[in-house]
Amino acid sequence: MERTLLIAKPDAVQRGLVGEIIRRLENKGLKLIGLKMMQLEDAVLREHYEEHLEKSFYPGLEAYMKSSPVVVMAWEGYECTASVRLILGATHPREADAGTLRGDFAIGTGRNIAHASDSAESGKKEVARFFADKELFDYDKSEYLHIYEAHERN
Ligand code: IDP
Ligand code: MG
Fold first, then answer.
1. Mean pLDDT of 80-108
2. In order of start, what are the domains of the chain with their CATH numbers?
3. 73 pairs with which residues across the strands?
4. Is the pLDDT of residue 154 over 80?
């Protein structure tokens, strides 16, 4: 099944929103398959945000992402990348729909709570960037019977 990465950014850790983020993704029915706290460093940030390296906001983004530990999570589910992006909301929190994490908890683009992979392909790449194979868990979730039709479960 599809895998995707979410990072609870330093503002989420500082503001005690890590549980709220996990709760919303669990409520959706997604499966948590990896979870850890880490301190991000320049090299991994430059790789992770490669597409933004030349942007004027990059130095601020790097400082923000290193300002405290983050919590990285790997999630699994049918087309889960799109689901997680919808739950997170638009990049610019003042344009994010109410009911999304960014719509409900953030105001500034530079303090927007969490990162989420933007495509199935980047989800796969990003989960591998932050998790070793042995840190990812393959287990049955009993509620799957009630969340998916058979063709979505396989
Ligand atoms: P995303 O996180 O919704 O995928 P991206 O466009 O990939 O958004 O940008 C990556 C991150 O860079 C954003 O989540 C935000 O933290 C930061 N960022 C993007 N645009 C700006 C900006 O205009 N000012 C400050 N930070 C920005
Ligand atoms: Mg992005």
1. 98
2. 2-146 (3.30.70.141)
3. 6, 35
4. no
Cβ neighbours, 10 Å, residue 50: 9
Catalytic residue at 115? Answer: yes
State the first-to-last Cα distance of the chain, in angstroms, to the nearest integer: 7
Return d(Cα 130, Cα 70) in angstroms, integer. 12
Give me the half-sphere count of Cα atoms (radius 13 Å) on the Cβ side of residue 72. Answer: 22
Measured from the alpha carbon of residue 89, the closest ligand is 1
Instruction: Among 5, 6, 52, 58, say which to mutate for ligand 1: greatest number of ligand atoms within 8 Å of CB.
Output: 52
Structure tokens at 88: 């997170």
User: Angle formed by the axes of helices 120-130 and 80-88, to 10°?
Assistant: 80
